[in-house]
Amino acid sequence: MQQTSLNLIAIGVFAMTMFSLLGPLFNISPAVPAIATFSILSLATIDTLSWQGKGVNLLVDWVAGASPQYRDRIIRHEAGHFLVAYLLDIPITGYALSAWEAFKQKQPGQGGVTFAPPDLTSSTLPVLIDRYCTLWMAGIAAETLVYDSVEGGAEDRQQLRDVLALVKRPNSEILQKERLAILQAKTLIQTHWTAYEALVTAMEQRTSVAECCELIQQHKKTNH
């Protein structure tokens, strides 16, 4: 969220410029926009340098969280990650559905599903990369299935691209892998749709990770 803080600084400068131009028309004292802009710039700078954008993160999430549609989309996005992680045997350690929950859990950013560190060896690396690519694209896949559009997932895409670039995959292959991972994630979610819907409800109620996993397992048994 450091970029958001920088955006706020830009907005502050723009606002001060506009107030300087329009203030005389509305009899607004020049001190008012100057103080307001200085406050915004100071807070944004402190947040960026000292708090790594956490303050702005909380503020933006709090404002957006007032929308039921926003909250629902977040839950459905993260339920996609959770379900696919479970199906791919990636251990889940927790989840947070807001910046405030993430802050309390000492997670970075606006939250999400967290996982245990993978056991990396030269033999398991290719398989793990494939699994994690599918996992990272699962939130995007879930949003596409539910809303036929995607608003989140920029960090997920970047994570996938960074890892594939790290193992020297060419750009053309990275884009192809991204599309394939979305397709694989969509297939997994569609195949276990009743488990996904039940998981959305459970996560909305902040059900524990263990209970969510048990819920998925029950639906898997039912499907078979």
What does this protein look like?
With about 220 residues, this protein is mostly helical. It has two domains: about 60 residues; about 160 residues, Methane Monooxygenase Hydroxylase, Chain G, domain 1. The chain is built from eleven helices and two strands; from the N terminus they run ααααβαβαααααα. It has a two-stranded antiparallel ribbon with strand order 1-2. Helix 4 runs antiparallel to helix 6 and helix 6 crosses helix 9. The termini are far apart. The N terminus is likely disordered.
List the defining traits of the structure above.
single chain; 224 residues; mainly alpha; Methane Monooxygenase Hydroxylase, Chain G, domain 1; 2 domains; two-stranded antiparallel sheet; 11 helices; 2 strands; 72% helix; globular
pLDDT averaged residue by residue: 80
Q: List segments where confidence is low: pLDDT < 50 over at least 5 consecutive residues.
A: 1-6
Helix content: over 70%
What best-fitting shape do the alpha-carbon axes yield? globular
What is the makeup of the main sheet?
Answer: 2 strands, antiparallel
Q: What proportion of the residues form beta strands (DSSP E)?
A: under 5%
Please give the alpha-carbon distance between the first and last residues.
43 Å
CATH class of the largest domain: Mainly Alpha
Number of domains: 2
User: Could you give me the name of the CATH homologous superfamily of the largest domain?
Assistant: Peptidase M41
Q: What is the fold named in CATH at topology level of the largest domain?
A: Methane Monooxygenase Hydroxylase, Chain G, domain 1
Spatial extent as radius of gyration? 21 Å
Order of helices and strands: HHHHEHEHHHHHH
Report the CATH architecture of the largest domain.
Answer: Up-down Bundle
The strands making up the biggest β-sheet line up spatially as: 1-2
Structural class: mainly alpha
- Tally of separate helices: 11
How many β strands by DSSP?
2
